[in-house]
Amino acid sequence: MTEMLLEVSGLKKAFKTGGGVLTAVDGADLTLRRGETLALAGESGCGKSTLGRMIAGLTPPDAGSVKLSGTELAGLSHRALRPWRPKVQMIFQDPFSSLNPRATVARILEEPLIVHRRGSVGERRREVARMMERVGLRPEAAGRYPHEFSGGQRQRIGIARALMLRPELIICDEPVSALDVSVRAQILNLLADLQKEMGLSYLFISHDLSVVQHLADRVAVMYLGKIVELGGRDRFWTAPSHPYTQALMAARPLPGTGQRLRDKDILEGEMPSPIGPRQGCDFRARCRCAFAPCAGTVPGLRPAGPGHDVACHLVPG
Ligand code: SF4
């Protein structure tokens, strides 16, 4: 059994809005072992990105715990967090908006090393060239600007930047959803190769289950700020248990046909508003299995099999 790298428990985040308090993440629990890929799946707006940003230390949580290699990071001051920041890095959905348009690639990649005072000028330049080569970019292009690259190349720059500090955990937030299908496979293969080569662990955020299927060792499904199902890849694909997961699976692209059923063809109704107080199971208005207890209490995660937890009243407590 490999070492536990990340332990998240009871993580919460709410934002004040003009219409009331918006609960983005409502008590999330998950773990990640070293070298593992955990996919975080769910519709847009379910809180996946906020959870990822809290784990990366970019958004402070309101409550809960984030432990990296056993050390509590939630609630640490900016200064106390500094030595831990290099260990957790993010790759973003839109590489163009996340790259400084006025900086050359050399500058973008060198900057994390400068901020964390790593290496001499010469060592940093050699590391930039080495990393560009590793992600499939020509080091001679280091003097060019982000707009001079294609979308796939820009995502390679984003990946290289995330790797410059030799992180242990990378949070990939929809890293291929803005790319053409042909480029997606190249980027996913690159991420898989880098994981093997550098012993990386990934928290892979995606609304697209076909992407999740490609990479994940385990899958967590999120709905309206809560994790509703968490399980190993095989169990997840063969026996999804939560009615929401089952609906997402039914909405996957059909293999070999190129056809795609949209969520709305499978899931009836909209996700409820995350603003204001709620009661009972958040999924019940869309759930074809809802019964009386679903309106009363919020189901917590409970074991549905080995390494498989489901938050649903259909699973015996
Ligand atoms: Fe459906 Fe009830 Fe399970 Fe919620 S708790 S998913 S409403 S059966």
What would you say this structure looks like, in words?
This protein is about 30% helix and about 25% strand. By secondary structure, it is an alpha/beta fold. The strands form two sheets. An eight-stranded mixed β-sheet has the order 6-7-8-3-9-10-12-11, sandwiched between helices. A four-stranded antiparallel β-sheet has the order 2-1-4-5, covered by helices on one side. A hairpin with a 2-residue loop joins strand 4 (about 65-70) and strand 5 (about 70). Bound molecules: iron/sulfur cluster (SF4). Iron/sulfur cluster binds next to loops.
Say which molecules are bound, naming each kind only once.
iron/sulfur cluster
Biggest sheet character: 8 strands, mixed
What is the CATH topology assignment?
Rossmann fold
Alpha-beta classification: alpha/beta
By DSSP, the count of extended strands is 12
Strand residue content: 15-25%
| Fourth-tier CATH superfamily name | P-loop containing nucleotide triphosphate hydrolases
Instruction: Provide the helix percentage.
Output: 25-40%
Distance between the termini: 28 Å
Total domain modules: 1
Order of helices and strands: EEEHEEHEHHHHEHEHEEHHHEE
CATH class: Alpha Beta
- Classify the oligomer: single chain
Shape: globular
